[in-house]
Amino acid sequence: MTAPISAPLTPYATLLGFTRYVDRTGPTKANFVGGLRRQRASRSGFNPHGQFVKALKADIAFHTGGTHLTQVVDVVKPRWRPLYQALVPGATAWLHSLGEPREVDLAQTRDALALLGDLPVKINPHFGVRHSDGRAEAVRLHFDETPPSEEAALATLHLMARHMDAVLPHAEPILVDIRRGVTHRMPESAKSDEIERWLAGEAAAFRAIWSAAA
After folding, report:
1. How far apart are CA 139 and CA 172, in angstroms?
2. What is the pTM of this model?
3. What is the rounded CA–CA span in Å between residue 208 and residue 9?
4. How far apart are CA 23 and CA 32, in angstroms?
5. Confidence of residue 10 (pLDDT cuts 50, 70, 90)
6. 72 near 51, Cβ under 8 Å?
7. What is the phi/psi pair of residue 9, to 5°?
């Protein structure tokens, strides 16, 4: 009996995966894409930040200013406790930077699918916030120990802005370095056309590496 031929894995990236890819140089790009491809093939992957994000969203939704963040450290599995302990101070500082808790509400965001050339990239903010003056922001969180590079932040913010009509209409994209409580916004000097050409080139290279790893 002939073994079934598995369908080839089509090139695909999440916003996190693609921005981590553009942040790499030389051979590390190929190694990174190969790892993403293997992870996709095995359907593996685990997000340790799920309970943390849920607690942060609860503090915004219920105007509690950090109570849920403090509590989640005690209920998360012991193996993730040091991670959460490292994240909470910056997250609490960011919450306080939003102003009076009752002046900010949680806003629902939707995922979108971006096409960079032929490469689909999933645009998935963590949540949105809506201020009492009517301003809204679509929030993507950065959890890494090192701050986001200029390139990674620019790619993240550009791709979110590019699809904001689907994600959270009329909102501004922000990238929050949650360990440090720092908010990154699109620089006023950013040239959208130049960023688009840069990302299109990165996407073409991503596809080529993905196919070569087959």
Report:
1. 9
2. 0.92
3. 13
4. 11
5. confident
6. yes
7. -80, 120
